[in-house]
Amino acid sequence: MFLGALVDAGVPPRLLEETVAALGVGARLEISQLMRSGISATKVDVHVDGEKDLPREEYPKRRQSEHSHEDAHSHSNEHQRSHEHSPGRGLKEIRQIISAAAISATAKRTAIAIFEALGAAEAKIHNTPIEGVHFHEVGAVDAMVDIVCAAAGFETLGVDEMVCSPLNVGSGTVVCAHGTFPVPAPATVELLKDAPVYSSGIQAELVTPTGAAIVKALATRFGTFPEMKIEKSGYGAGSRDFPGHPNVVRLVIGESATTALAAETALETIAVLEANLDDLNPQVFGYVMDRLLEDGALDVFGVPVQMKKNRPGTLLTILCKPEDASKLSQLIFTETTTLGVRRREEVRQTLARRWEQVHTPWGEVRIKIASMNGTVTNYAPEYEDCRRIAAEHHVPLKTVMQEAARAYLGAGGNL
After folding, report:
1. Burial of 45 by CB count in 10 Å (0-12 exposed, 13-18 middle, 19+ buried)?
2. pTM of the model
């Protein structure tokens, strides 16, 4: 179902087919489009040496050798006879097959990690070393195809994280290699520790051990649908069609809201300088602010504070580039009465900004425009331009600023 969702979301089928061929285990894929409770979805079936993988509920009710993978199964009496006395493939051999395949190193590492998680769950359940877990021939090939294609397809998406919703595990019973067990199967329960799960009451196994291993390895976290800008989606079909319940896995791909915001804003590290002043002539304070701005400070401001011995004072704060911090600290020591300057670095996020010029009856005025996600969020006439025009033409400053804003809006500017 996960492979079907990948293909439906845009992963090229040829990539998965080439991945299967690279494994060299005698398997091939059959990809089809069908409906599940009114939802169009992509179904991916695995054929092993001419045999098609079966839904778990159709597994032949036979007992396999001890410590075999719960998903391992035989498709015919001939297969059953050929493996009755064979321990099947162990993790060591499976690692070798995956490592030798002509696929990316990242996909190999991911696939091996998923198989090892599957093996660790089985080993714990059966109280045996992980290297003692064996996967019967057909079941091992099915699992390899599912897991390696999932790893390769997921890598192709190029996503930074995968958020998974709580998992509907189903209910009822399932026939495993060691008997009939309640849903979810023991290996599924082991793999989904710390993951949010629930049952909607459907009498079927909705999460298999292989599926649990894949989602547990690939999911960055479990949670509700994240805030995001949706780009595309895909639906992968299961084998059965439940009335009133689309038996599909949905994969939604997009850009998170925080990422979209970051793309429209700039992140930078700045230095913050602070000094407490309680015996500085107020006339000097304005002069110091001007000097700091002239020497490269990004912003300077003062906040009234109540200091020791109940003396009123001012907290002087300067924002600057880290490379200017030492120079500006020296200026503070030289021009004020403080005996110490505190320094720290912080990350500042700023909106995208640009300048436009508008024409007023008294001259040109620059407009500073800030935007986010391509939408203008703020605009303001440049103070110095408006102050200069007001002084030169003896016009009230507020009139100049209002006329500049009107000119911007009249020229097609907007919020």
Report:
1. middle
2. 0.58
